[in-house]
């Protein structure tokens, strides 16, 4: 008899736990995951809606809130909605800064620069890369610099401030790698001659 009672009690507790779990509102993680599923199906509007719900549902600085913000920015940028994308990437940067996530801060700056790749905003795009490089240097994230270097050189080239024929090669001397790769002289050096 005691065994039957114990089995019923265990079944009751298990069903109660399942019922309680089902009554909890969806988490930022579940909204994000549903958004990713919609995005893979090409259902952009549904994906955006789920990402917005994840952002609105996240009362904390959770990983899935940050991922949702970045995903919204990427979708807006792909749709040509640069202002909306820039807003999301700035928000992503702010979240990353509040959680001291240097890698996400750098990637958010890169994404902001992608939004600013128009002739009138190119100097701002270059400023994003310069700030990203400062973060990379302070955190010693040299492999991340290598990922950003081609885009940075492209922006500098469009501004007329780069000599792209000079490839980046690590140097034992204290030469700034992006300045070196872009052909920009170090502050203590003289400018390279035009034939160089």
Descriptive notes:
This protein is an all-alpha fold and 196 residues long. It has nine helices and no strands. α3 (44-57) runs antiparallel to α4 (63-78). The chain is elongated. Mean pLDDT is 80; it is low at 164-175, 179-183 and 185-196.
What is the secondary structure topology, with strand pairs?
Layout (H helix, E strand, L loop, with lengths): L1 H22 L4 H13 L3 H14 L5 H16 L3 H17 L3 H14 L6 H18 L2 H17 L18 H6 L14
Keywords:
disordered C terminus; mainly alpha; 196 residues; 9 helices
Give a count of the beta strands, DSSP E runs of length 2 or more. Answer: 0
Average pLDDT, to the nearest integer? 80
The portion of residues assigned to helices is 55-70%
Termini, distance in Å? 94 Å
Number of helices: 9
For the sheet with most strands, the description reads:
none
Strand % is: under 5%
**Uncertain residue segments:** 164-175, 179-183, 185-196
Mass-distribution shape: elongated
| Overall radius of gyration | 24 Å
- Order of helix and strand elements from N to C terminus: HHHHHHHHH
Q: What structural class results from the helix and strand content?
A: mainly alpha
């Amino acid at each position: 008899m005691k065994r039957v009672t114990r089995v019923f009690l265990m079944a009751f507790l298990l069903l109660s736990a399942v019922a309680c779990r089902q009554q909890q509102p969806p988490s930022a993680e579940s909204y994000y995951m549903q958004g990713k599923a919609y995005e893979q199906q090409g259902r952009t509007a549904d994906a955006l809606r789920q990402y917005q719900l994840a952002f609105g549902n996240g009362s904390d600085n959770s990983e899935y809130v940050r991922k949702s913000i970045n995903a919204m920015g990427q979708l807006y940028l792909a749709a040509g909605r640069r202002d909306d994308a820039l807003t999301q990437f700035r928000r992503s940067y702010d979240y990353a800064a509040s959680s001291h996530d240097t890698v996400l801060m750098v990637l958010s700056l890169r994404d902001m620069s992608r939004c600013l790749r128009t002739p009138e905003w190119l100097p701002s795009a270059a400023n994003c890369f310069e700030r990203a490089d400062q973060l990379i240097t302070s955190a010693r994230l040299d492999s991340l610099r290598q990922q950003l270097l081609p885009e940075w050189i492209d922006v500098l080239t469009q501004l007329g401030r780069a000599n792209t024929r000079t490839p980046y090669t690590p140097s034992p001397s204290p030469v700034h790698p992006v300045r070196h790769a872009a052909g920009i002289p170090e502050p203590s050096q003289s400018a390279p001659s035009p034939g160089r």
